[in-house]
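Batch manifest line 261
LIGAND: nicotinamide-adenine-dinucleotide
JOB: complex structure
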Amino acid sequence: MAEGFNAKTAYSVANKVMIVTGGGTGIGKVYSQRLAESGAKVVLADIAAEESNAVAASIREAGGDALSVPTDVTDENAVQAMADKAADTFGGIDGLINNASLMSVLPRGDWFDIKADRWDSVMAVNLKGIFLCCRAVYPYMQKRGGGSIVNISSSRIWEGNPNRLDYTTSKAGVVGLTRALAREVGDDKISVNAVTPGFTMSETQIASSSSNYMGGRDDGKCFKRPQFPDDLVGAVIFLLSDAAGFMTGQTINVDGGMYMH
Ligand SMILES: NC(=O)c1ccc[n+]([C@@H]2O[C@H](COP(=O)([O-])OP(=O)(O)OC[C@H]3O[C@@H](n4cnc5c(N)ncnc54)[C@H](O)[C@@H]3O)[C@@H](O)[C@H]2O)c1
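JOB STATUS: finished
ARTIFACT:
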């Protein structure tokens, strides 16, 4: 047993202030709900204001702590205002899940048909958005004496999936950002890790994928069943908890054993 390890509290995120970008729909909504059920104070930062407000309201109705701050993660001022509001409301910031992404809204298709402006938008949300959110929470985590950042990448980077070249490229960038930032903020006791989810049956993914595309996706897994948002929650909460306190710069793959690294 590690010295100083408190088995009763190590895996808990109770009372920690956690920001979930893109927390209003899809997998982010499930992270927000489960974190709140675990006793965390959750800040939903999603461009989808109506959805985000509704999720936060339902968490509060169930007795949890949640604040929706509709935010475009590509807008530096809006991101700063969101972090300030989170800290003002809950007294600080302990964790950040960079989950917002352009994914389900992107048509799948040949790389040659991707226009330059779409490429720029994907990089803006999926990479610059993460950079801006990390920068906005950093002073607050320093004040707290530490913190944890979890960046959501994709298992596409292990396979090199085609048909969304911009998206796959951005998600590989997330791993580079995770590793380099982990070295930059280690002295501040801030961990930075990444998770690579497999194809996950989020409400948004289901709505944007044909049954033909979804068929046969489980064949290569060790666990031959579809992946659901809840399959990701354990890894994400672990990385946000004290139990993962000596892990940083790492990437955890959660995909039912499709890819191994
Ligand atoms: N569902 C999957 O199969 C799968 C697989 C691997 C990785 N992922 C990743 O997991 C995360 C969640 O996936 P999902 O299925 O819920 O995806 P999604 O595309 O449906 O949801 C992304 C969320 O980001 C929000 N968002 C988009 N642009 C934004 C912006 N500019 N500012 C703030 N919020 C913005 C959306 O409103 C939405 O709530 C994403 O990072 C995605 O890339 C998903």
